[in-house]
Every structure is written in C-alpha cells, then in structure tokens.
Amino acid sequence: MSHYTIGELAKQSKVTIRTLQYYDRRGLLIAHRQTDSNRRYYTDEHVKQLELILVLKQLGCTLDEIKTLLDEDTNMNTFKTLLSLRKDALHSKVEMYSHTLNQIEKVETYISEQSSAPINHLTDIDDAMKQEYKITYFRKKIWISVGILGIIQYSGLLLSLLRRSIKPLIVIFPILITYAIVLTAIYLKKVLYLCPNCHHTFKPTLGAFVKAKHTPKTRQLTCPNCHQTHYCIEVYQNES
C-alpha cells in the first residue's frame, strides 16, 4: 500500500495543504500518524475518499452533508434523494437570481451613464417600473387603433383604384386626419417621460412630441429640469 505525505497528496489531488489539514480537523479525511514523529501520512484509501469528497463538493454538497454521507455509509438511492432536494433548491435559487438579474437590467435602462442624480431617485424608477404593465396595455390599444386607421386608409386607396376615382380618398382623408389627431392627443395625455439623467418626469409639448425621434419605448427629448437631451423613457401617467 502506498503512503503519501500531506504535500504529495495535496499536489496529486490539486488541493492545498491547508484544505487537507482542515478536512482532518473536521473528521472528513483523518490522516494516519507516524508513531515516532506524529507526522501525517495518507494511504490509497485516503486518495479514494478525497476523490469522493471532491466529487460531492462539485455537486454542491456542504462539508456537513458530506460528513454525514460518509459516516452513514449512504447508498446510491439515498444519495439520489439528496441530489433531488439539492436540485430543487438550486432551481429556486436560479429563479430568484434570474428575477434579480432581470430587475437589475431593467433599472439600468432607466439610468444614463452620465447620471448624477441622488440615489433616492431610485424610488421614482421603481414606481415607473411598477406601472410598466399599464403602459404595455395602453400601447397595445394604441396599436390596435393604428391598425384600424391603416385599414381605413388602404380601403380608401383600394376603392379609389377599383373605381378609378379619387373621391373615396377625398372622403376618408378628413377621417384619417381627425383620427390621427385624436389618437396623438390621447397618447400624449396618457404618458409622461422620465429623464434617464436626472429622473425628472415631464410631459413634452405636442410639437416636441411629434418631431422627436423615438423607439417603441423611448423618445429623444430635452428634459425641462436638467436641460439635457436623452432618449427619455415612456411611463404611464396615472389618473389624478
């Protein structure tokens, strides 16, 4: 049977000497002692047990759990039950961390890289995020309305082509203009914009709203509070 010093075992198993000393104190891997010098030495059985300990650690077992498994000479069926419990716990953690990561990424979209606003404005961001479902629902209704507007427009165009007359377009043109004006007014009434620099919420003028470059969720506006131009985030305006 081969004998190993603590240094040899540490090097062979790619762990530190301190780790082996700690496992010895915890009763996980108790070294033999030389009677004359009291120095630690390890055998092939220790090597196998250390390999098992390292595998169990890779599977997420704590040292206390590993000691229990080794002391009770656990069989594979019992160990599978432990693994199932460990897997469920990890799934819960993954879901929690995934939710936290999602929240972090959302908050980041509300803050510009140059923002110097105090941290208490984080509550304003949180309020805006809590209203996201409202603005999403509102946007869906607007898109439905835009779809109706498109149907009216293309119906008039098709009718004009079929009749070879411009009259259908002339008839629906005032309807389209009125519909578009009303839709824009409703939209502007229901939204505010949050500046990612100072986190002030504001309502732009109609002219600024119409002319501004925009994405589905932001609009390039000049904040009346910090006077900087950013892609400001659209938030829902609650009824007062």
Automatic annotation (TrEMBL):
<keyword id="KW-1133">Transmembrane helix</keyword>
<dbReference type="GO" id="GO:0003700">
    <property type="term" value="F:DNA-binding transcription factor activity"/>
</dbReference>
<feature type="domain" description="HTH merR-type">
    <location>
        <begin position="3"/>
        <end position="72"/>
    </location>
</feature>
<dbReference type="InterPro" id="IPR036280">
    <property type="entry name" value="Multihaem_cyt_sf"/>
</dbReference>
<dbReference type="InterPro" id="IPR009061">
    <property type="entry name" value="DNA-bd_dom_put_sf"/>
</dbReference>
<dbReference type="InterPro" id="IPR047057">
    <property type="entry name" value="MerR_fam"/>
</dbReference>
<keyword id="KW-0812">Transmembrane</keyword>
<feature type="transmembrane region" description="Helical">
    <location>
        <begin position="169"/>
        <end position="188"/>
    </location>
</feature>
<protein>
    <submittedName>
        <fullName>MerR family transcriptional regulator</fullName>
    </submittedName>
</protein>
<dbReference type="GO" id="GO:0003677">
    <property type="term" value="F:DNA binding"/>
</dbReference>
<dbReference type="Pfam" id="PF13411">
    <property type="entry name" value="MerR_1"/>
</dbReference>
<feature type="transmembrane region" description="Helical">
    <location>
        <begin position="142"/>
        <end position="162"/>
    </location>
</feature>
<keyword id="KW-0472">Membrane</keyword>
<keyword id="KW-0238">DNA-binding</keyword>
<dbReference type="InterPro" id="IPR000551">
    <property type="entry name" value="MerR-type_HTH_dom"/>
</dbReference>
